[in-house]
Specification:
By secondary structure, the protein is mostly beta strands. The chain has one domain: Jelly Rolls (Sandwich). It contains one helix and nine strands, in the order αβββββββββ. Strands 1-9-3-7-6 form a five-stranded antiparallel sheet, with helices on one face. The protein has a four-stranded antiparallel sheet with strand order 2-8-4-5, with no helix packed on it. The longest helix has 14 residues. The N terminus is likely disordered.
């Protein structure tokens, strides 16, 4: 796939699709409030409708950040809440650079980045999954450079 098409698809996934509460969503992105970036008291609440699939899919994490965040790393605490209310916890360390991403677009003063997070295949709990993203509580300047976070499913 050409770089231009790849960049277009990333932008479409992150920004042009309707809100996160739409039915049958395969991607969800939310901007953080305020000019101070992603503050330690902001939990980003997302949701995806996941159904059993015969093919493996990839769950991706995405971010929009200011260009001066390039090369830095963020720690994201993920809470997955299944349709029946069970919670699963995980932690991801995400480096904001091209080599760690499946898609990386520098657009003026912003970076849009997509990281492959995990393979998902046969699910024993289909339906709407809530995904809560929290950041580490350390006061690291990189979090002030994060403008939004999201999740998506791809093949």
């Amino acid at each position: 796939m050409s770089r231009t098409i790849s960049a277009y698809l990333l932008c479409l996934t992150l920004f042009l699709l309707p809100g996160c509460t739409e039915p049958l969503r395969q991607s969800c992105f939310k901007y953080v409030d305020g000019i101070g970036g992603w503050t330690e008291d902001q939990t980003i609440s997302l949701s995806l409708d996941l159904a059993d699939n015969t093919q493996d899919n990839i769950l991706n994490l995405s971010a929009c950040a200011s260009e001066d965040a390039q090369g830095e790393e963020i720690t994201v605490y993920l809470t997955f809440v299944s349709p029946d209310g069970e919670s699963y916890l995980d932690t991801a360390s995400l480096r904001i650079e091209k080599t760690d991403a499946s898609d990386f677009v520098k657009n003026g003063t912003e970076i849009q980045i997509l990281w492959p997070y995990m393979k998902i295949g046969k699910l024993n709990k289909e339906g709407r999954w809530e995904i809560l993203l929290d950041r580490e509580k350390k006061d690291k300047p990189v979090y002030r450079k994060i403008r939004g976070m999201g999740v998506s499913v791809s093949r």
